[in-house]
Specification:
This protein has 468 residues and is of the alpha/beta class. The protein has three domains: 145 residues, 3-Layer(aba) Sandwich (Rossmann fold); 134 residues, Serine Threonine Protein Phosphatase 5, Tetratricopeptide repeat (Alpha Horseshoe), CATH 1.25.40.80; 141 residues, DNA Cyclobutane Dipyrimidine Photolyase, subunit A, domain 3. The protein has 22 helices and six strands. Strands 1-6-5-2-3-4 form a six-stranded mixed β-sheet, sandwiched between helices. α1 links the parallel β2 and β3.
């Protein structure tokens, strides 16, 4: 059976001569059964070589500041994944521990000769994939099931900004923005007995901060993700372009947690947007016909955020391993930050004060409260929030550390290329240009309270967040 996916979506990490055995999809970033290129590729290998197929997920006891809020979202979603896979004749294994130990052990125990995983640009994930590759004797493949255009295909370098990656993305979209084939019932039975996952044991294995608890406004899993997407497209999509940047309106999609945990494929959302729009993709992205990337209609605005901006974030974290520190900033930003390192700060706050929303600024405090209570901060406020951390800390290094810690601790979509990139844009001018010079910020773009007042009803936003 030929592979049902574009071969450019697949990268070989390790190739060994073919041997009979089993195929395993090591699920990581893309926690779903349907619309998953990595799982589809793994199944195509099983069909081609008449081999059984299983899916494994490694539950690490701790991961990059993730709290109970994030882990419950993962575990509850995976329970649904296990049930959905069983209907397709594909067993699911939840492995407890570190992937560099558990994956080699599993491959040896179950005769795995072909291992497939999904793409993740974060440093920690790339490190343990390299360690796994060194320890296994199976062929090892990586599939970008998260981006519409694979990160290694759209460009081979770090891009300066959206304006440089956008034409590359637009040129390749017609080739990659295709409908998913269905996952088939796998005909080759797994050779070992499979017991249902002990989810309570999995929970007990975690060594995490349980004080940051689940939120009740969102339900994890593929089914909930599809319902949330349908609701957004039916009820709010038409006003997305006009309402999305106003924190007092319910104008954003609310889908970022589902996209982050892979419960929803960005490509599925893009395809459904195109179906509603009625415009072909080339017409939507044609700047000569539609003007700038802004104010071109809800379809163009959503696809810009969903595709171009997400591809840009993965590009930054993939090609710049210093995405989480000041060494990843552009040279002009490093220079201006150094020149203003000793500038007097009117206010200086500790991590604890930031964490408890105890600054002098009621707008910043409201944004922090939204994140702490709901696990989500409005996208416009994320920019203001991070820039004020730069203004109220002693250095850009401290600002980066504080912003990343708080984001990854409370946000459901923390520990994500979008989050690291947004913080680096706000604090270090990544994907931005030099602006007028001012104290502390130097030439980094500045935002203030009065600027927010001109954009939306600040008092209303503060009132709502304080009422949470």
């Amino acid at each position: 059976m030929a592979s049902p996916i574009n071969p450019n979506r697949v990268r070989t990490i390790k190739e060994v001569p073919h041997q009979d055995g089993t195929v395993v999809y090591w699920m990581g970033r893309d926690m779903r059964t349907e619309d998953n290129w990595a799982l589809l590729f793994a199944q195509s290998l099983g069909m081609k070589y008449t081999m059984p197929l299983a899916v494994v997920f490694v539950l690490m006891p701790e991961f990059l500041e993730a709290t109970e809020r994030a882990y419950r979202f993962i575990l509850n979603g995976l329970e649904e994944t296990e049930r959905a896979l069983a209907k397709k004749g594909i067993p699911f294994y939840l492995l407890l521990g570190r992937p560099e130990r558990e994956i080699p052990k599993f491959t040896a125990q179950h005769g795995v000769t072909k291992l497939v995983t999904d793409f993740n640009p974060l440093n920690i994930v790339r490190t343990y994939k390299s360690e796994v590759a060194a320890k296994i004797t199976a062929s090892f493949y990586e599939v970008d099931a998260h981006n519409i255009i694979p990160a290694w295909t759209v460009t081979n370098k770090q891009e300066f900004g959206a304006y440089t990656i956008r034409p590359k993305v637009h040129r390749l979209l017609p080739e990659y923005l295709e409908e998913f084939p269905p996952l088939r019932k796998h005909p080759y039975e797994w050779p070992a007995p499979v017991t249902p996952t002990d989810w309570h044991k999995a929970d007990r294995s975690l060594k995490i901060d349980r004080s940051v608890t689940e939120v009740d406004w969102i339900v994890p899993g593929e089914t909930a993700a599809q319902k949330a997407m349908s609701s957004f497209l039916k009820e709010r999509f038409s006003a997305y372009d006009s309402d999305r940047n106003d924190p007092t309106l319910n104008g954003q999609s609310g889908l970022s947690p589902f996209l982050h945990f892979g419960h929803l494929a960005p490509q599925r959302l893009a395809l459904d947007v195109l179906a509603i729009s009625g415009r072909p993709i080339h017409e939507i992205v044609d700047k000569e016909k539609n003007g700038s990337a802004e104010n071109r209609g809800s379809d163009a605005s959503l696809l810009e955020e969903l595709i171009v901006r997400r591809e840009l974030a993965d590009n930054f974290t993939y090609y710049n391993t210093d995405y989480d520190n000041v060494n990843g900033f552009p040279n002009w930003a490093k220079l201006t930050i150094a020149e203003h390192r000793d500038d007097k700060r009117e206010y200086l706050y500790s991590l604890e004060q930031f964490d408890h929303a105890a600054t002098h600024d009621p707008l910043w405090n409201a944004a922090q409260r939204q994140m702490v209570v709901t696990g989500k901060m409005h996208g416009y406020m994320r920019m203001y929030w991070a820039k004020k951390i730069l203004e109220w800390t002693a250095s850009a290094e401290e600002a980066m550390a504080v912003a990343i810690r708080l984001n990854d601790r409370y946000e459901l979509d923390g520990r994500d290329p979008n989050g690291y990139t947004g913080i680096a844009w706000s604090i270090g001018g990544v994907h931005d240009r030099a602006w007028f010079e001012r104290p502390v910020f130097g030439k980094i773009r500045y935002m203030n309270y009065n600027g927010c007042k001109s954009k939306f009803k600040v008092d209303e936003y503060i009132r709502r967040m304080n009422a949470l």
